[in-house]
Write a structure and sequence with these properties.
Elements: E1 11-12, E2 18-19, E3 35-36, E4 43-46, E5 51-58, E6 65-69, E7 74-78, E8 81-82, E9 89-94, E10 98-103, E11 112-118, E12 124-138, E13 147-150, E14 155-158, E15 161-164, E16 168-173, E17 179-181, E18 184-186, E19 188-190, E20 193-196, E21 205-212, E22 219-234, E23 239-242, E24 248-257, E25 261-266, E26 278-285, E27 288-295, E28 304-312, E29 315-325, H1 335-347, H2 358-362, H3 370-381
Parallel strand pairs: 4-12, 13-22, 23-29
Antiparallel strand pairs: 1-2, 3-5, 5-10, 6-7, 6-11, 7-8, 9-10, 11-12, 12-15, 14-20, 16-19, 16-21, 17-18, 21-22, 22-24, 24-27, 25-28, 26-27, 28-29
InterPro entries: Ig-like_dom, Ig-like_dom_sf, Ig-like_fold, Ig_I-set, Ig_sub, Ig_sub2, Neural/epithelial_adhesion
Protein name: Neurotrimin
Main location: membrane
Length: about 375
């Protein structure tokens, strides 16, 4: 070590490093003193990256430059020598004028003031601040998980985040829809906690807790809010009409969570099983379900009452639809009429060459008189 530097005082700090003071050199002429050509710029660096602090001194002559960590009063380097035992710190210099302090893999403990000093008398120095920023992260063990709550109760979701600067936290629905919050329709709520009073099924869905602090990237956590309620049922049409030979579809709408078990019964209480004449099929949309029952080729025996039933662990409900017979429209060609014409056509095959097919016959059946026309047509054929 240069003779210009003597360790005149040493104090042991918790990190095991000694703080040393440097004996200054007296210079009789002010013009011979070193001078700093520019301030040390404050540096902002993201944790994990490398930092560089620059100190530029003119007219250094035989004086020495030292880097000091101000908050701990620890000398990091003296001129060409590294004093600290921190392996992440190194030194470089250029033309006996520019002195660079390198800090690799910057950590939060490196945040603070750094001083570049020259051993003049009095000592001359400049200082710069190393601002270490940390992107936000969600603290999982302090943040809510997927939550199930009964409709009408209150619920609070919590999201804790860390980072530097301190992250800003907000909540919004994943689907981007507004939601009711304390009587207002809002798109987002600020703060680490989201408290919803008298929660309803409309609140059900995925919520995003988003933390940001202008240090990219922002981070989010997805939390499902599930609202339990017993089944509710609505029927678009409680009275349906159909004519014999027609296909008809009955429809019920249900809402329930947990998801309900849905089925149909006849007016005799028999459960309807899909297959053959009947086709029962649900259409799901979240906690909504559309119950559909298709009845094929209606006969007299199919008219009557049908019940749609929904059950879950919180309760059950049902609704009734009445299926009534209605007259066939004039353009309808029923199975009975087709059978009559087919039999008569077989008996007198080939006697009406101007009639090409049954559709042509059907087109003559209009209004209330089509039954009589069948009889008249039969007599012509005979």
């Amino acid at each position: 070590m240069s003779e210009d530097y003597r360790r005149s005082e040493g104090r042991e700090f918790p990190n095991g490093q000694n703080v040393v003071s440097v004996e200054p050199i007296e210079v009789p002429n002010e013009s011979m003193y070193p001078r700093f050509t520019e301030p040390i710029p404050n540096v902002t660096v993201r944790v994990g990256r490398d930092a560089l602090l620059a100190c530029v001194v003119d007219n250094l002559r035989g004086f020495k430059v030292a880097w000091v960590r101000m908050d701990t009063q620890t000398i990091l380097s003296i001129h060409h020598n590294i004093i600290t035992q921190n392996p992440r710190i190194s030194l470089s210099y250029n033309d006996h004028r520019s002195w660079y302090l390198h800090i690799k893999n910057v950590q939060e403990v490196d945040r603070g003031w750094y001083m570049c000093q020259v051993n003049t008398d009095p000592m001359r120095s400049r200082k710069g601040y190393l601002h270490v920023v940390v992107p936000p992260s969600i603290i999982d063990n302090m943040t809510s998980v997927d939550t199930v709550v009964r409709e009408g109760s209150d619920v609070t979701l919590v999201c804790r985040a860390s980072g530097y600067p301190e992250p800003y936290v907000m909540w919004r629905r994943e689907d981007g829809q507004d939601f009711n919050y304390n009587g207002e329709s809002v798109a987002a709520v600020d703060g680490e906690t989201l408290t919803i009073t008298k929660v309803s099924r409309l609140h059900m869905g995925a919520y995003l807790c988003i933390a940001s602090n202008e240090v990219p990237p922002s981070i989010s956590k997805r939390i499902m809010l599930m609202v339990q309620f017993p089944p509710m049922l609505s029927i678009p049409n409680q009275l349906e009409g159909a004519y014999i030979g027609q296909d008809v579809t009955l429809e019920c709408h249900t809402e329930a969570y947990p998801s309900s078990i849905n089925y149909w019964t006849t007016d005799r209480g028999d459960m309807i099983i899909s297959g053959g004449k009947y086709e029962a099929f649900p259409v799901d949309s979240g906690y909504n379900k559309f119950m559909m029952l298709k009845i094929r080729n209606i006969t007299k025996e199919d008219f009557g009452f049908y019940k749609c039933i929904a059950k879950n662990s919180l309760g059950e409900t049902d609704g009734i639809i009445k299926l009534d017979e209605i007259p066939a429209p004039p353009s309808a060609f029923t199975t009975t009429q087709k059978s009559i014409l087919d039999n008569q056509t077989i008996r007198k095959k080939g006697q009406l060459p101007n009639i090409q097919n049954n559709d042509a016959i059907t087109s003559n059946f209009q209004g209330e008189a089509y039954g009589e026309q069948i009889r008249d047509f039969g007599s012509v054929l005979l």
